[in-house]
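To whoever is on call:

I kicked off a structure prediction for a single chain this morning and the downstream step that reads the tokens threw a length-mismatch warning. I double-checked the sequence; it's 505 residues and nothing unusual in it as far as I can see. Pasting both halves so you can look.
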Amino acid sequence: MVDQAIKNLVEYGFQKGLLSEDDKIYATNQILDVLKMDEYNEPEKASESIDLEAVLKELLDYAHETGVLQENSVVYRDLFDTRLMNCLMPRPSEVVKEFWEKYKHSPKEATDYFYDLSQNSDYIRRYRVSKDLKWKTATKYGDLDITINLSKPEKDPKAIAAAKNAKQSGYPKCLLCMENVGYAGRVNHPARNNHRIIPITINNCGWGFQYSPYVYYNEHCIVFNGQHVPMKIEKAAFVKLFDFVKLFPHYFLGSNADLPIVGGSILSHDHFQGGHYTFAMAKAPMEKNFVLKDFEDVEAGIVYWPMSVLRLRGKDSDRLIELADIVLKAWRGYTDEEAFVFAETDGEPHNTITPIARKNGEMFELDLVLRNNITTEEFPLGVYHPHQELHHIKKENIGLIEVMGLAVLPSRLKEELSRLGEAIVEGKNIRNDELLAKHADWVDEFVPKYESITRENITEILQEEVGHVFARVLEDAGVYKCDEAGRKAFGKFLAGVGFQEKQGQ
């Protein structure tokens, strides 16, 4: 019943506020054009309950049966269903106008509208995101967020081959460029027909504000430079962070570091990530307080966190920016051989900062996470990076999101943990299983902790232990450890900047 599916899709768009009553016929005709249908017998009414995923599946199956969709794989289906959703979408100018009208009432009302639109348009595929595995693990550093990400679709072999053979295009320059709005996509670039961006001004320049299609946490947004320019952590970066937080005080905003290994996946385009969520790091207390001459109005302290975090607090964001710039410049050039901190080796710089800005009540806060990307023969992927014994769980770079206390773990772990649980309960030799052998040492380590492991509690146990592995990952990534030697070395750096520890706390 393709006619019914078309009717339902248009009705869905109307119910979700993507289009008005006057747009229905137009939207219907656009869908017919995408499906290359010459005839349409409009049903009397839409179904009472409309499941977007089911409706799109029916239309995609029809498109494949009729030869309109030539390849019936997830990559090609995603390209095609985004074209269908575009038939329901308001123009970018309409979205921008509505956003700023709502902003006049409150920034939150504006972001609520835009976030809902990004979900209702299927730019954020809710039915995929809902399949992500998520839980919290209590640790001495607070409740860490753990997610096994399943919403990024795995590419099928045909699509990978097609992408390899596809002509390399310089348009859009990257996934974060403004030109992605309305872009139809290709096998090596996701479809963005249904994508919308809000233009904003930060640091007197044109930037874009959008949501991540994979929403690792609530209202996970991306803020990016209108120009395709590389990321750089400098004083201007702190200015940009606070300009955004002032526009949207209910959001935090942070930046990945600007060096490989400790940086994000896209260093070629200046961008930040933020959202409406409070991570464990933001809740972590300051364990030692410091003051710098001429900056007595700024609270400064080492945060109780496995990464090396200096928190600055004050009512005047400009003062935090000035002080942060002093810390950054000092850290860029800092070497402490005893603590294995080297500013550079053979001309290659190693020190940088992951900064995170937020408004907390009347106070602005800026967390400066000290990062270092040095490698050695023993640790070829990075000394301050998950060590080899943890790679069975997490091998990838520790970027901004992980730094704040959310583990984004690979999709392979869903199957591996499921099979591992069965093997543990059944008492199988894990080392004889090719898929599971890499987890054997870890299992040997934690199993003795539990008096009884059953089918009923194994999932909870595995989740708990994965959470503790992530805490160790963060400890590995911390330049200064949370022990006496680490805190002494951290204090030595701060003293070199000119900070004095406040006594009698």
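Update from on-call: the warning came from a stale cache, not from the record. Cleared it. Sanity check on the structure: The chain has three domains: 1-88, 169-213+216-384+484-501, 412-477.
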